[in-house]
Specification:
The chain has about 270 residues and is α+β, with helices and mostly antiparallel strands. Helix content is about 45%, strand content about 15%.
């Protein structure tokens, strides 16, 4: 197993659409964002002024998947429940994926912050608490934190399990065909990680994918559309315990993707 980082947002989306299909809520339902809903990490919601933001569930989904917005993700995960995500995956025959924490808790655990104490504060209050506690790490402290993060079994999965989920989505074997098609359409518009799976593929190659990055983990997983009717390639490349430059890992992922693309296209 590897840390999923933000690739765990794929199973979250599967559960959101499963509950929509069951009639628990609708994609058009509106959600009002408060200051305490604006969380740490990637995205744009935390840079806006709250209260004063009202978004549909569909737009929260778009933010979660297109730009990997952590605030949108945590609101959706709170709505559907991590336990429901895991149970749904098992009902689909997917083992080896465990969704356990919102992004805010995951980041705080990595940083050594007490989520129970700080997790429900505003970002300004969290930043003040970090400054008071001394936010700077030595290289040795950072290495120790990275190794501890990857050793935590929570929010981990096997690449095989994520690939199996993507295959089921592509083949429209879960939820219903329209929901699976929506997942793929959204993932085709992913705006992050252009240097990973897509990095060395021919320009214009369609890739429905989701990336993730945190604490020595640089991930990408997705569906590559081969040209000339040669089919589709599902690929999951995850890493952990990397201490160097993210761009170096991205280059490795890009080469792996190109090798796989060439193999399946030409043979």
């Amino acid at each position: 197993p590897f840390p999923m980082a933000s690739t765990f947002k794929v199973p979250v989306l599967v559960e959101v659409l499963s509950q929509v299909k069951e009639g628990r809520f609708a994609l058009d339902d509106e959600v009002r964002i408060q200051k305490t809903d604006q969380h740490m990490g990637s995205g744009m919601l935390s840079s806006l002024t709250a209260p004063g933001i009202v978004l549909s569930v569909r737009n929260l989904v778009n933010l979660m998947m297109l730009i990997s917005d952590n605030s949108a993700t945590d609101m959706l995960l709170a709505k559907v429940g991590a336990d429901k995500v895991n149970a749904r995956l098992r009902s689909f025959g997917i083992d080896g994926i465990s969704v356990d924490r919102p992004c805010q808790e995951l980041i705080m655990d990595y940083l050594g912050m007490d989520y129970a104490k700080f997790g429900h504060l505003s970002l300004d209050e969290i930043s003040a608490a970090r400054r008071a506690g001394g936010a700077r790490w030595t290289p040795e402290e950072e290495k120790k934190a990275i190794l501890a993060f990857s050793a935590d079994p929570r929010d981990q999965a096997t690449p095989k399990a994520m690939t199996a989920l993507l295959v089921k989505i592509f083949r429209k074997e879960i939820i219903d065909p329209d929901s699976c098609e929506l997942i793929i359409d959204i993932m085709l518009e992913c705006q992050t990680g252009g240097g990973r799976i897509k990095g060395e593929l021919p320009p214009g190659t369609a890739v429905a994918h989701k990336t993730g990055t945190i604490a020595g983990t640089v991930d990408d997983c997705g569906i590559i559309y081969l040209p000339d009717g040669q089919g589709h390639l599902v690929l999951t490349v995850w890493t952990k315990n990397f201490m160097g430059d993210t761009a170096d890992v991205e280059a490795i992922i890009a080469k792996i993707a190109r090798f796989a693309y060439d193999y399946f296209y030409f043979t």
